[in-house]
Amino acid sequence: MKLEFIPLYEAFEKYEDRCPICKIIEQEEKVYCERLLEDEILKDPEMYIKIGQTNFCRYHLELLNNSYDKLGLAIALKANISYKLQQIEEMSKTLKKKRRKIEKEKCLVCKYLRERDAYHVHILLDILESDKDFVEKHSKGFSNLCFHHLDVLIGLAKNITPQIDKIIELNKSTIEKNINDLEWFITKFDYRFHNEPWYDSKDSIERALKLLGGGYYD
Ligand SMILES: [Zn+2]
Ligand SMILES: [Zn+2]
């Protein structure tokens, strides 16, 4: 097996109740955010400029703030707000002249995660190519792919192979089940159905949120 296949094999092995790609991305997000505040990164001139110029999204600002490394965070924030002050000063100087439209930098962490998404999905496509039983073996994990990763997978696939078709079918039945369970959840609020059992509807909101939870990047 190719070395780069291992993380996806492990993720599909370990996490079948939710999107395995989301699980990998979450781990990488945590590592990247911690790494961003490390001395070695902040002292790297190129990275320091990138951290200064980025526009962290609200979610990643919060995630960075959850870090124990308050020194690293303070250095990163100082670089970031100093650059923003400089931009405001420049803007106010050119205000009376013709104002040029400045392309707003995206959140550094979001940008990284988008690249990682594409990387993992490309590897997954390679796995599907070389291991014809992979979908069959991990049908539960595939049935729980989130909308975002299903979308990336279909978008990056050169053509809809029988395996991808199977993945779409698996997902469709999960989504349809989720819709039916939400429907029953809603029905249960009607007093006439008060004494009816919940069946599988109790966690239907939680499952819908998992389906919608991938790819929140800006
Ligand atoms: Zn996902
Ligand atoms: Zn972000």
UniProtKB/TrEMBL annotation:
Source superkingdom: Bacteria
InterPro entries, per database record: DUF6062
Name of this chain's protein: ABC transporter substrate-binding protein
Species in which this protein is naturally found: Caldanaerobacter subterraneus subsp. yonseiensis KB-1
